[in-house]
Amino acid sequence: MLVYRLTESTAMDPNGTTAADLFKNASHGLTYNDFILMPDTIDFAPAEVDLTTRLTRDITLKRPLVSSPMDTVTEHRMAIALALCGGIGIIHYNCSVAEQVDEVRKVRRFENGFILDPVVLSPEHTVADVDRIKREQGFSGIPITADGKPRGKLVGIVTNRDIDFETDRSRKLKEVMSKDLVTAPKGVSLNDANDILRKTKKGKLPVVDKNGNLVALTSRRDLLKNRDFPDATKDAGKQLMVGAAISTRPEDRERLEALVEAGAGVFVIDSAQGDSTFQHETIRYIKKKHPEVQVIGGNVVTPKQAENLIKCGADGLRIGMGPGSICTTQEVTAVGRAQGTAVYFTAQTAKKHGVPVIADGGISVTGQIVKALALGASAVMCGSLFAGTEESPGEYFYRDGVRLKAYRGMASLEAMKAGGGKRYFTENSDHVKVAQGVSGYVVDRGTMFSLVAYLSQGIRLGLQDLGIRSIKNLHERLYSGELRFELRSPSAQREGGVHDLHSYTEPDVAGGKRK
Fold first, then answer.
1. What is the pLDDT of residue 131?
2. Which residues, 6 or more positions from 303, have their beta carbon under 8 angstroms from its beta carbon?
3. Cα–Cα distance for residue pair 471/58, rounded to 1 Å
4. Shortest CA distance to 314 belongs to which of 344, 350, 338?
5. pTM
6. Radius of gyration of the chain from Cα atoms?
7. Active site residues
């Protein structure tokens, strides 16, 4: 049990203490749960809080949210959804160069309202297959192509009205699908597609090329949902922005070139311990070869490490070594740092150079996002928090009546076998692999659109309670000493959470199916 000893110089201030004094006088590393923020006067509504922030020197986000480059978290669907909502996704590299490039291109080609890789079936599939897709992915309007491939010749479509009253679920789709199709030509604008849906009163509109091959799909629901995303993260060409992870290995320079050509606008050097000569050389190489590309270095946890990467040209820093829910680095290697302490000291150092930092790991609730920002982070990177959404890779399954998705650390044995070991300086496959992460499961959190809205409102409420109108103002008050903190004893931490109940229902998170 931790004991806090107060001397005359560290005696409690009735109004709380500054961050500088909090960390100066701490005899141990602090995590987000070890402290609380002091409230201030409120004279504005939550809607007036501005969540605009910086990801790197040159990239601005409307939401301080970044998805982790993990193979159970970020592929194109996650990156598209998060970019539309004002954050950004970082595509993982636990795949071939061609596969990662394809994921980046799908994000870059995305147009609001159009699904460029729709789920399709063939005429030989059955009604039961439609039921399975509806159960796993939540939709049932499915195009039917001759060969069952996404770019195949469109021959029909199956919607609820075709199968709702069908008693034989083994019946083949060629017997029940609608063949009288309303389609739009390749290149149709979103407005024209909307007009076609309105006039025909159809729910789905396939887009086909001159040979009748399916190239995209849009729906009335998607048009309504994607009609207006004023906070979307876009580049000067009005395309959604996406990041990509690469390793420090020499062979990944080929990957870098392919990803730059595909349109990746920011690169995350994905290393568990980022202060290495390998990463120094990689950052210098990228900035010399592609000065227009933004580079996020890391992971680091000390001012010295931060300085080293900034000197090499890093445009942003990723902070954290071991705080993630599936990470066992601190247990296995005895190296790392408490996340609150790591974020505060690295952010303080990076600020001198105009470089933003991203707090990576240890985020499970909105209050921890507010605390990370209050310690100087410009954004947070989330893994487990996003892993259970509809847009994360993988399929849902049920266990004990709870809807789940798989989630694994990139240093788990399973991920390392697939290539994740590149970020941990592991050598070839003949050497012993030491896992620094685990595999597990996370609950269904609904869609990213609902989750980001939920998280954003929680952050606004936190800043409102602090009497602060923007993340920029939050950082100004942090470094001026106006923002006040207080340590929490274990009893205070318990008091601040749910307690003394016989049982309770855990709140639903943004439409998820948690039970």
1. 86
2. 345, 346, 348, 349
3. 17
4. 350
5. 0.76
6. 24
7. 327, 423
Quote the pLDDT of residue 515.
39
pLDDT tens-digit map of 343-384: 999 999 999 999 999 999 889 899 999 999 999 999 999 988
Question: Which single residue is written with the structure tokens 């274990």?
Answer: 490
Residue whose tokens read 């996650």: 78
CB 100 within 8 A of CB 466: no
Domains assigned to the chain: 51-112+231-395+446-482 (3.20.20.70), 127-225 (3.10.580.10)
Residues in contact with 191: Cβ distance below 8 Å, sequence separation at least 6, in sequence order: none
Task: Please give the structure tokens belonging to residue 302.
Answer: 């000390």
Alpha-carbon dihedral sign for residues 293, 318, 306, 418: negative
Vertex 460 angle, CA 68 and 91, to 5°: 15
Find out whether 339 and 370 touch, Cβ atoms under 8 Å. no
Q: Is 492 exposed, middle or buried (0-12, 13-18, 19+ CB in 10 A)?
A: middle
What is the DSSP track for 119-132? --B-TTSBHHHHHH
State how far the alpha carbon of 364 is from the alpha carbons of 86, 367, 390, 466, 499, in Å.
20, 9, 18, 21, 19
Q: Report phi then psi at 97, rounded to 5.
A: -60, -45
pLDDT for residue 469: 97
pLDDT score, position 513: 46
Q: Say if residues 384 and 324 touch (Cβ distance below 8 Å).
A: yes
> Whole-angstrom Cα distance, residue 398 to residue 350?
44
- Ranges of residues in the chain with a pLDDT under 50 are 1, 6-8, 412, 415, 427-429, 512-515
pLDDT at 364: 87
What is the reported pLDDT for 407?
73
Give the pLDDT score at 361.
87
Q: Around 392, how many Cα atoms within 13 Å sit in the side-chain half-sphere?
A: 31
Cα 105 to the center of its chain, rounded Å: 18
| Runs of H (alpha helix) within 63-121 | 76-84, 97-109
The residue ranges of DSSP E strands in 197-272, in sequence order, are 204-208, 214-219, 243-246, 266-269
Sign of the alpha-carbon dihedral angle for 310, 80, 469, 511: negative
- Token pair belonging to 409: 């650390």
What is the C-alpha separation between 383 and 369, in angstroms, rounded?
A: 13
